[in-house]
Amino acid sequence: MQKSSATDLLTVEQAIHILDQAVIHPRVSQLNLADAHGLRLAQDIIADRDDPPFDKSQMDGYAVRSGDGSELTVIDTIAAGHAGDVRIEPGQAAAIMTGAPLPAGADAVVPVERTTRRGDRVIIEGEVKPRKWIAPRGSDIHAGNVVLTKGTRLGPTQIAVAAAVGASRVQVFARPVMTVLSTGDELVEFDQTPVGGQIRNSNCIMLVTLLRQMGCDVQGDAHIADDLPATVEAIRANCGGDALFITGGMSMGEFDFVPKALQMLGAKIAITKLRIKPGKPFVYATLDRADGGVCHVFGLPGNPVSAFVCTVRLASRVLTRLAGGSPQAAMGRAQLISPLPINGDREFYQPAIRSGSNVEPLGWKSSADIYTLARANVLIVRAENAPATNVGDWVDIMEIPT
Ligand code: AMP
Ligand code: MG
After folding, report:
1. Half-sphere exposure (CA, 13 Å, Cβ side) for 86?
2. pTM to 2 decimals?
3. Average pLDDT of every residue of the chain
4. Each residue's pLDDT tens digit, 282-326
5. CB–CB of 72/121 below 8 Å?
6. What's the CA-to-centroid distance between 254 and ligand 2, angstroms?
7. Among the atoms of ligand 1, which is closest to the Cα of residue 186?
8. Residues, CB-to-ion distance under 5 Å, ligand 2
9. Closest residue CA from atom 15 of ligand 1
10. Which ligand is closest in space to the CA of residue 300?
């Protein structure tokens, strides 16, 4: 195989374009609202009635007629949840609690703090303006209004909205289902003691954790030896979900079997390398499943920082679409507090610590240096061949899931 020069490789932008064009068929499921946290709606949610459903008191106080006298007879007490059955006539008032329906005849509420009660009489201080302390029926939302649109992610407040309009079962995009595979004869499980040239497998648990944090349903993980038939078999056995993540064995080493195995399985390989640092050997392929669906295969470099960056920057785009969302990188700007040298010929994602509007680049050791990445909360994004930057310069940053 001929070694490709940097300019032969895709740019990050081109790779993202390919990922964003990939055909996606998100799965839809019907769930109880309480089980839908973090998922995106596959339907609009419509208000089933006006909210408030009646003219509602916003205060504990007295329902009165504006412009009436300053001393009134209290004829009823209306608690929240109870409709008053009285009509307020001139010279009358009803004690009313926050959230209770305004009784007929009344057109204002006076907060209890502005009143003095003497038996069945109440004395009102100051002027009473019409409509004061009343939330009119439908002032928040009208029956038939769309309160949540398809694609909205259901966080706590969106779940409250769905609950308020009685959407007890909701159609949502299902969590993308996937498996994580690691490769490499040098790896032992992280609860084992490495000997000789061995190292612990840190990628597998990192990816399982990251993907779950991104809302994916990671059904399992497994380790594959650096062996072509074993790699083919492991991919075949684990491509039944929406996606498959494989780390290591992605580049040109003598024991890098993943691209070859994907080819043997008839995968459509759309990306093999790109100009990203860390992470050049990133593979994206699709495998047709026996059930007629498609498995999106992400081949990540074995180096942990590369595997992380490629997942967050690249694979996440397909995962977001599989979950019914529109991909959007969490980009921002911050001011450098130490200078950076001229960048090389790959778009560079440099671990850094952002605090407020300042960002401190962390010393770049290598794409194996998970220790530095774990101290970072952002990545500084540097364009190919970006010039040296000085203290105080504004740079692009990307948030990283922590
Ligand atoms: P590879 O991409 O397989 O050539 O691996 C690149 C580097 O990443 C090598 O130093 C590997 O030992 C290391 N590496 C590969 N897989 C893992 C893993 N699962 N956990 C930690 N390090 C890994
Ligand atoms: Mg390897």
Report:
1. 17
2. 0.90
3. 96
4. 999 999 998 999 999 999 999 999 999 999 999 999 999 999 999
5. yes
6. 9
7. 12
8. 184, 248-249, 302
9. 302
10. 1
The label of the residue with tokens 């949840």 reads 81
Contact predicate 277/348, CB 8 Å: yes
Beta strands in 225-330, from DSSP E residues, in sequence order: 243-247, 268-271, 276-277, 283-288, 294-300
Distance CA 126, CA 295 (A): 71
Rounded-to-integer distance, Cα 241 and Cα 294, Å:
8
| Residue 68: half-sphere exposure toward Cβ, Cα within 13 Å | 24
- Among 192, 203, 369, name the best residue to mutate to test ligand 1's pocket (greatest count of ligand atoms within 8 A of Cβ): 203
Q: Residues lining ligand 1, CB < 6 A? A: 182, 184, 186-187, 199, 201-204, 247-251, 253, 301-304, 368
Compute the average pLDDT of residues 76-82: 95
